[in-house]
Amino acid sequence: MAKKIVEKVINAPAQALEMGVNQGQKLAKNTMEAPGKAIAMSKDQGQKIANAMPTSAKNSYKKAKAYWYMLGPGLTTGASDDDPSGIATYSQTGAQYGFSLLWMSIITMPLMSVVQEMCARIGLVTGRGLAGNIRKHFPRSVLYVSTILLFAANTFNIGADIGAMAQAVQLLLPKVGTTILVVGFTVLILLLQIFTPYVKYAVYLKWLALVLFAYIISAILTKPHWISILHYSLIPHIQFTKDQLLLICAILGTTISPYLFFWQTSQEVDNEVAEGKTTLKMRMGSDKKQIRRMRIDVWSGMILSNIVMFFIITACATTLFNNGIHTIGTAADAAKALKPLAGNATYYLFAFGIVGTGLLAIPVLAGSSSYAISESLGKKQGLNHKLSQAHTFYGIIIISMLVGLAFNFIGLNPIKALIYSAVANGIVAPIILIIIMLLATDKKIMGEWKNGRLSTIIGWSTTGLMVIAGIGAIYALFPQ
User: Fold this and answer.
1) Band of the pLDDT at 40, cuts 50, 70, 90?
2) What is the DSSP string of 297-357?
3) Percent of the chain whose predicted confidence (pLDDT) is above 70
4) CATH numbers and ranges of domains, the chain
5) What is the pTM of this model?
6) What residues contact 310, with CB distance under 8 A and at least 6 apart?
């Protein structure tokens, strides 16, 4: 009885939305087609430029094009890690401690890359998402606790990200009201996620990843001291204060996040479905070519994610820290503080990046919760399905977005939202990592594609580190 009630509540938003589709069809169609038209125009212009190039340049262009087409779920997963909440965390790191924690961007790169590669491999080999594998191989209690905590953490994060996007737009257009912006972004993201065919939607997310280069450019414009940067990047500097402990835990929680695990695994499955592998039997197993493509994709996405972290910390350390500004509340606060110190170009790039990363990350946050809960309940899931085919899946996305939107109207401080999110992630991340390790090292499940020795060592080390980080975050947040 309770399960039926829960299902009815989850399905209700999707059913109600489906009833109103006809009235909003024109708006939805225009919303879906606009990004595609822009991308098509940029492709046409790029091809014209390529045709005019000399032969050697054309060959380089072809290689770059082939590499770009190889990228997919790994790139979007890595890029979504640098969401507005992550930008706020990295900005605060640079403002409060200068270059001291730059080494975190180096050390976390192989850790998150190995973990995300394991998630992708699990999806490719088993043909199921992460929640589907947990449901099959572990007690239901573990699955339900993990998915509830994941939903809570993601929803807090969505609320904070929507608010940050609105604040970023207000930096550029001060007269636009907050209500219009937060509601507008929520509706836009829902329309794209629910009504855009998966093949097109995956392309949109992929192109949105390029917005991250705004942070690399903005950092270079601040003219940082590269010798100091090299020093602090290679030699860890830790003060062992409570504040720094909390910030280190926040960085680990931001880079190695549970929502990335679920999204990566499910996107690999969705990609296979889009290629025609519509049954579990067709998806099970893998080959060297597929694994190689996946590794290039995953490592490219994680390297980009950490490079962006590196440059955000660098930009804020060079400008804010060196000018005595040591506290940043939100990503928008960082952009505002940068304007008088680094100039308009850095200010606009930083603000533009907040909006772009929000458009990329929020669908990933909502989608990962939906994949996890839908698989937990044994319901159809995946962006390949239409609204009418997967009420539960899209219902959870709608609920996630609406609850996140509501946080912006009940006076919940965005920093508190991030703290609650960090605590939930600190609890759930070690649990999920242990499960990932048990799945990835089991030959019965993974066959020849089970973890090698190095992946196993790095994976368990990362799990241990996240256990310590979770305990540290809880200790630092609550006074003794």
Assistant:
1) very low
2) HHHHHHHHHHHHHHHHHHHHHHHTGGGT-----SHHHHHHHHHHHH-HHHHHHHHHHHHHH
3) 85
4) 71-477 (1.20.1740.10)
5) 0.85
6) 102, 105, 106, 233
